[in-house]
Write a structure and sequence with these properties.
Elements: H1 2-38, E1 40-48, E2 60-63, E3 66-76, E4 83-90, E5 102-106, E6 109-111, E7 114-116, H2 120-123, E8 126-130, E9 139-141, E10 155-162, E11 173-176, E12 179-189, E13 196-203, E14 215-218, E15 222-225, E16 232-235, H3 238-243, E17 246-249, E18 263-267
Parallel strand pairs: 1-9, 2-8, 10-18, 11-17, 14-18
Antiparallel strand pairs: 1-4, 2-3, 3-4, 5-8, 6-7, 10-13, 11-12, 12-13, 14-17, 15-16
């Protein structure tokens, strides 16, 4: 009898140790779950007109280059006119769930300041944010682009006339000595439809570069000069090869500073010997 009792006690002890491991696993899982829940920030909804490129569990919310949350789901509004982005903020990003917070989608964009958002070509679009300072809020109206910076603010408009706008498109650079000073913002037909009008916006600080006798021409990717005894081949930057653009230069002597909205002819190529032009363009 004693032997049988000892065997039962031994079996009980063995089973008791076996149950310790699942018990520890449950306790650890419970602790991790509590840690996860306590570290969660508020959940918000952002409405956009278009959700192209936004993906659940992939698209991030960023502020000053730091991740503050992640998109958890993307749905349509009841009237199917809006895209509703559901996002979970991090615990330390509660100020983004407050009145006054702003959200917009960041995608590659060409402006006067240059090309921005190139990182999204690899990682995909992300949602940029600005914190709010008001009462708690969980529903927001997002924008397709930032309202904090208008690339056309503090610019001067000029118009170029050409019989053919081949290789010229809105977003193309306008450059001076290879430096970006503006951008093409619009291409339209003239009233008679005999020519095309190309609107360019130059940053105001570069308005002094545009004189009444300034020459404008299309930038081309490859320039070739063939002669009997001498030939030249010039290949411009990759961006010019892919996108084109407009170049400007002023011959000597320089004319007066052109007025806002002045119209110039857009030439098909650079003027002869323009590299030798070097007028003083002080204000």
């Amino acid at each position: 009898m004693d032997k049988e009792l000892k065997q039962k006690v031994s079996n009980f002890n063995s089973r008791w140790y076996v149950w310790l491991f699942p018990l520890f696993a449950v306790l650890i899982s419970g602790w991790l779950l509590i840690q996860y829940v306590t570290n969660l920030g508020p959940e918000i909804e952002i409405r956009f007109d278009d959700g192209n490129g936004i993906e659940a569990e992939k698209t991030l919310l960023n502020y000053r280059g730091v991740t503050i949350g992640k998109v958890t789901d993307v749905t349509l509004s009841e009237d199917q006119k809006k895209v509703i982005v559901h996002a979970r903020l991090q615990k330390d990003a509660k100020s983004f769930a407050a009145e006054g917070a702003k959200f917009w989608i960041v995608t590659p964009k060409v402006s006067i300041q240059g090309i921005t958002g190139l990182e999204t070509l690899i990682k995909g679009p992300y949602i940029a944010a600005q914190p709010g300072e008001g009462d708690k809020k969980t529903e927001f109206q997002g924008k397709q682009e930032s309202e904090t910076e208008d690339p056309l603010v503090d610019t001067v408009i000029y118009r170029l006339e050409t019989p053919n706008a081949e290789s010229i498109n809105p977003g193309d650079d306008v450059s001076f000595r290879g430096m970006n000073v503006g951008t093409v913002t619009k291409v339209t037909l003239s009233k008679t439809a005999q020519t095309l009008l190309v609107q360019i916006n130059l940053q105001s600080k570069y308005a002094r570069l545009v004189r009444t006798n300034t020459q404008f021409w299309r930038k081309v990717g490859v320039q070739a000069k063939l002669g009997l005894f001498k030939s030249e081949l010039k290949i411009n930057s990759l961006e010019t090869l892919l996108r084109g653009g407009v170049e400007l230069f002023t011959p000597e002597p320089a004319g007066e500073i052109a007025k806002y909205g002045h119209k110039f002819p857009l030439q098909a190529g650079p003027p002869k010997d323009y590299q030798k032009w070097n007028p003083s363009l002080e204000k």
